[in-house]
Design a protein that fits this description.
The chain is of the alpha+beta class. The protein has helices at residues 28-41, 63-74, and strands spanning 6-11, 19-24, 46-50, 53-57. It has a 4-stranded antiparallel sheet, with helices on both faces.
Length: 77
């Protein structure tokens, strides 16, 4: 479901054109619906949640790049 207020797709050079998505939600209910959707559909990759932001990372992203994205997300207040 397209419940997010804003969404961006980005690519990572090592696996371009894939990379990930950044989704911003206006409320917790919509965020929960989207994260539940990721679970129900069996979406491959890593889903990180911080406040009202969800970041989906392609499963082919290296562990080092994955850690960088998680640190960046956790730095958001």
């Amino acid at each position: 479901p397209q419940t997010e207020r804003e969404a961006w797709t980005f690519s990572v050079p090592s696996i371009a054109p894939s990379g990930g998505r950044i989704l911003v939600f206006s409320d917790d209910d919509k965020l929960k619906k989207k994260t539940d959707w990721f679970t129900r559909t069996g979406a491959k990759g890593r889903v990180e949640v911080r406040n009202n932001i969800v970041v989906w990372l392609d499963p082919r992203i290296s562990a080092a790049d994955d850690a960088k994205y998680r640190r960046a997300l956790n730095g958001i207040r």
